[in-house]
Amino acid sequence: MKIKDQLTGEDYVDRVEIAGSIRRMKETVGDIDVLVTTPKPLEVMDFFTKMDMVDDVVVSGPTKSTVRLKETGMDVDIRTFDDKSFGSALMYFTGSKETNVELRKLAISIGYKLNEYGVFDGDELVAGTTEEEVFNSLGMDYIEPELRENTGEVQAAINRTLPKLVELGDVSGDLQMHTNWSDGKNNIEELAFKSQTMGYEYIAITDHSMSIQTSKARSERQIKKQMDEVDSVNRKMDGLTVLKGVEANIDSYGYLDVPDKILQEMDIVIAGIHSGFKQNKHELTRRIVAAASNEHVNIISHPTGREIHGRNGYELDFEKIFEAAKDNKTLLEINSRKNRLDLRDMHIKQAVENGVKLVINTDSHSINELVNMELGVGTARRGWAKKEDIINTLNLKDLLRYLKN
Ligand SMILES: [Zn+2]
Questions:
Q1: Which of 48, 51, 226, 386 is at 20 to 30 A from 139, Cα to Cα?
Q2: Thinking of the domain 2-159, which architecture would CATH place it in?
């Protein structure tokens, strides 16, 4: 984040962290909270309120200021803290409020007091420098920020049964992206080279199939030509493998718009709903179950069809979908596009609890969108997903073996 980088660059800034819902990787963010330790708070406030990205200074004080940003109109609060309170302040301003309430209750139950300045035994400071120290002083494991939504994480931390969450560095490849063969901006080679710089071992090119009106139609002949192009890009690549794929449309009866003889030539087949959102829960569930049960289909993309700030996701009978996904080894996608993040956190948690395997894809339509993987991983973490729940953490060999089964 730019604000953090700029502040980190100043020599009178010791520690700086972004707290709040951004740190919890929440899908929508209200305002931004920045915490700083510094021997010179006035200089920090002066620098902060005069940064280029600042449109307006809302409040300016010695230990707290608020500015409004130019581009987004978002408010940013900055607060300075003593080093010995930085961990407890970070915890407090990271939230969620509900988790903080639970933690304060827990502190009281063992005879302590917890607030943004630390854990106190009477007047004596017990812990506060780091979050780890604060959690440990309360007799519990560290809770990753993405889990702090009061959905059972406090008790799990006390019981020391929190999952080890998947990390961005665990991801070995990205299995949904679109090229200029359909509605993407870049060609296969550009996507492959950019993906290689991200440390991936594989990607899948999964342009839309022919019936989708929003993209240039692809005939069977074009699909064959694109497969040849994938082969020729693979000959140029060293260390990254490009897989052949397609994102087929699931029609209103649950059939795909790509013939089987093409599907069976693909390394990876994604099926997604891109039209007919108005059907009822039963019909939409049946479409997805039918697609997930198709022997060629590996992934159901953006399963609920929701758009953040847009249409709500359609209602689905997740029990049936989870069952079909498990029975057929079909993966449910965590789509990393900013306006999708679909599956969302709570559905990911249910999927993980039900033993359903997932895949985190960016659904990139240009090389600039490949970095959105971070958002998908953040959402997976909010859904308590571990590395072993996410299939694109496998190496290429194991991935291909999984896809064949
Ligand atoms: Zn799609």
A1: 386
A2: 2-Layer Sandwich (3.30)
